[in-house]
Write a structure and sequence with these properties.
This protein has 128 residues and is mostly beta strands. It is built from one helix and eleven strands. The protein is globular.
Length: 128
């Protein structure tokens, strides 16, 4: 069974940090583009950050630049999102998704028009 499972969400105070994990099972992330997406209440889903497993290219939304870091551990078949300096506006359900995309600029494509396999999400709440 092909599956993505997110973990690591929780309640954190503004300025705090969390590390989200996206573990793949039933397939390997080799030659995939993987992204983190969030959906806040009443807002559209947005791409936060994406990474390609084959060349480690990354893409960050403006809201994530300088604060979030995406990384991949191919041995563990897992993608991470390290989130620092968290703000209340970072609150939402965070999903990961993975797809195999042809062509160029695949990380940006994935973050803007996500596709492929999706996880069930993990809640992140930033509040004092």
């Amino acid at each position: 069974q092909l599956q993505l499972v997110e973990s690591g969400g929780g309640l954190v105070q503004p300025g705090g940090s969390l590390r989200l994990s996206c573990a793949a099972s039933g397939f390997t992330l080799d030659y995939y583009v993987i992204g983190w997406f969030r959906q806040a209440p009443g807002k559209e889903r947005e791409g936060v950050s994406c990474i390609s497993s084959y060349d480690d290219k990354t893409y960050y939304a403006d809201s994530a630049k300088g604060r979030f870091t995406i990384s991949i551990d191919n041995a563990k078949n897992t993608v991470y999102l390290q989130m620092n300096s968290l703000k209340p506006e970072d609150t939402g359900v965070y999903y990961c998704a993975a797809d195999q995309l042809p062509g160029s600029d695949t990380v940006q494509k994935m973050c803007v028009i996500p596709s492929g396999y999706w996880g069930q999400g993990t809640q992140v709440t930033v509040s004092s």
